[in-house]
Amino acid sequence: MKLWLLKAAGTLEDEEIIREDSVVTIGWSEFSDLSNIKNEEQVKKLILEKYPGMRGDRSGTWAEDICSFITKIKKGDLVAVPLKTKNEVLIGKISGDYEYRQLSDFISHIRRVRWLKTLPKGAFEEEYNVDFNSPEALLLIKADPAKLSDFIETKSLGALIEEMSFALEDLEFLREQMLDMVYRLAETEEIPEVRKIAAEMEKMLREK
Fold first, then answer.
1. Do residues 41 and 62 make contact, with C-beta atoms less than 8 angstroms apart?
2. Residue 97 has pLDDT above 90, yes or no
3. Would you say 90 and 83 are in contact if contact means Cβ atoms under 8 Å apart?
């Protein structure tokens, strides 16, 4: 398990998406799907095609950041994301591989994450000897494994059972709503009404 510092939170709206959708991003939404990227040279070529006047060292640094985000960060690694709008650092555990999903003008290249906790920026900088004002967008932090384990919250069996109970209640409620909409679809022959119900189903599923 490694700890990465990822300085790409975007605007206030982007930070809300990052929190609510449980994702992290590297930015660079001007590029389309990067799922086929295997090495830094491929990324550097894309950057120089988009920005032909860019210096080689800068394009190399950014290519390394993007490639690391896609290929080097592993599921189970920890990520620290300093927020721009608050004096906080989000700490999360990576739970998914690279995905291309357009969530905002800034967010399209993502990794899924399970947020664990927040820490004050000053305390994090002092503890891990990092500078949030440094130019790197992505940085591997040297940290004692024992410290990293402190980020992982250990819940009691009772708390886990309670969370599971709430989740099952939500699933049952969702099932009832879905059945109701299916019955409505079966009873209507009006195309506009079908589209309306389908839109309701999509909205409900996204909210869940």
1. no
2. yes
3. yes
